[in-house]
């Protein structure tokens, strides 16, 4: 049974970084031609294991067998030569080179003289590779002008052109909309038919069950279990990942439905009328009530983030009116938005929400310094007190307030960002993909926190590309498509299918959209 | 029919887009032409053939240095030591001939090697020592100028030897030799950047170093090489400088790094790496040269010229930031 022989066996792998044991005696086995999911919370060791496999970092101890043979993988180039490719979470294409140049980077076809490149061969071959997977991109297109989904396709083509027969995909769907995810899955299935082995890392359990054949679960650097997907259910896998029962993944849903309690809708806290900005945002009307969570659904290109930025005064708008607490306001800077009681947790938390090299305490208190300083001097004791309060309230897991935020897990980093805003007691909180790339446990905590805030009267706008999340914790859902709001649902009316239909622009115009 | 019509309109818009792209691509040319028009209105002496050759001659030192600078900037680096390397190679080439009695061409070769070596040290400090390019080359700037002063004891070294001064003051047909050398350096750099694997890898390192490393490319070699190239072009500019001035002056080319960086940025090279071309750089150098020449013709004091140059540099960088932000 050649099919059952593992194409890859990583045996008793251990790896330590200063102060952390990232991998502890992990054995990982993949069969030829399967889609093998590798799951675990952040910090479970998935990335470390894959970095060892792809030669990005050396292993501590253990052995790697490829097609039954003991193999040394000591550099990315070696991994490539062995047919192993990794598609990284942060897409690894060079934006100002074109598609063809990116695909053949480092192995450009040689020209007439040594050192020269045969450009025409390069573009012709890149074109063939793209055509083979029915991807409609011209090889001379600059990568910077492609969408995230298209870039991912280019990455896959790049991997295949390396004759990779083992492809590692690290969170490939985290930046994709549902429809793009489906396209990616179809591509993965056809690769599988061609005998390509895929190792699929994902935080989204639903996706693992939709696409994978088998799943390996890691926790805290150790192997917890391996199983064919058909023999386990989501609850079991999540339990293996977090080491405890899956609490309420979507607490608000469970909470309010089970208690039969509707979250009381109160007064309009934020009102927007006719907001437009070029072709990006068109005639947006929106009302946010205090104490509600408004979910903003849409595909990539719906410009939900641009709407959030416009609301927060980051990008200038062409026209439109806004009221906060029924007072007309003109938001033209984040400072003003903050002064008026708004908070914005951006999608790219590491780049826009955190000071990675600074301590937890400094990150939490930086926006509230006005409250805890006098004549420009920060009251150290108050700062510690404030930070301490939020670390406890949000259950931020950090060894001390002096820990640098860089060293926290993604979920705890996100909690620090939230703490920063909560310390200002905002009335309106805009959260852009608040749980992207965050493990299941921390996700549940953030959801619980959101519904707690809503109960205290904060109005929350949540942008999310995960429909179950949107459906799970929103009181009301708005769907955007190409810069317009095309539909609005109360929670009970909404279904995944209908939201998708509008988000994809299916229900052409405005017959049921105004709310 | 409708299909054909559709194709036609899309062709038109395609052409329009192409035109816009071309205009944007050559906008630095338009700036140069505009500047020349302005200067010829302000001074009747500007628009003469001899003055144009004068501008080109003047610009050639900046252009050659800036071409090397462009290599470092494409990798998201910078080389602040170029002015000092110019001075050092001036002093060494002239001094080796005059003081040590070494024959002309071996002396030139040794001076080139010294400048290139200084560039290699910068490169190694960046790659092996992990120093930011700004810091490594700032240190080399001091070292290079210091070595020049040590070697010359602060004195100017005069050199009249025709075989040597030809390389700065001679003419090939109608063209001053430095202009011809610039053209050759430009052609070589252009071919390297657009046709070779190394050239592509220079862009790649600036666009994403980790990606490039993971593609199996020796990024350390690429990064070291660009400082070697920059050191070489600066040394070459130094020899031309001495040959043009008939002397090596220890304080020559102080502040040249600013002209070179400004020329690159004006020519469209991004301070953030990954974007740029040597064609643009040469035009950028011509702009700096024309500006220099024009201000001289208008009898603007050299003190004010420095202020104006600084302002032009800031405008060029602002333009770079602005176009980046709008992408």
Please specify the SSE layout and strand pairing.
The complex is a heterodimer of chains A (515) and B (327).
Chain A: E1 6-17, E2 20-31, E3 35-39, H1 46-53, E4 61-66, E5 69-70, H2 76-81, E6 84-87, H3 99-103, H4 119-132, H5 148-161, E7 166-170, H6 178-193, E8 197-201, H7 205-211, E9 214-219, E10 222-228, H8 234-242, H9 251-258, E11 268-277, E12 281-289, E13 293-298, H10 304-311, E14 319-324, E15 327-329, H11 334-339, E16 342-345, H12 349-353, H13 360-365, E17 373-374, E18 377-378, H14 380-393, H15 410-422, E19 428-432, H16 440-455, E20 459-463, H17 467-473, E21 476-481, E22 484-490, H18 496-503
Parallel strand pairs in A: 3-8, 3-9, 6-7, 7-8, 13-20, 13-21, 16-19, 19-20
Antiparallel strand pairs in A: 1-2, 1-4, 4-5, 9-10, 11-12, 11-14, 14-15, 17-18, 21-22
Chain B: H1 2-25, H2 27-42, H3 49-74, H4 82-98, H5 104-127, H6 133-152, E1 157-158, H7 162-169, E2 171-172, E3 175-176, H8 177-195, H9 197-207, H10 209-214, H11 219-245, E4 247-248, H12 256-266, H13 278-297, H14 302-325
Antiparallel strand pairs in B: 1-4, 2-3
Helix pairs in contact in B: 2-13, 3-8, 3-11, 3-12, 3-13, 4-5, 4-6, 4-11, 5-6, 5-11, 7-11, 8-9, 9-11, 12-13, 12-14
Name a few traits of the molecule.
heterodimer; A: 515 residues; alpha/beta; Rossmann fold; 2 domains; six-stranded mixed β-sheet; B: 327 residues; mainly alpha; ABC transporter involved in vitamin B12 uptake, BtuC; two-stranded antiparallel sheet; 14 helices; globular
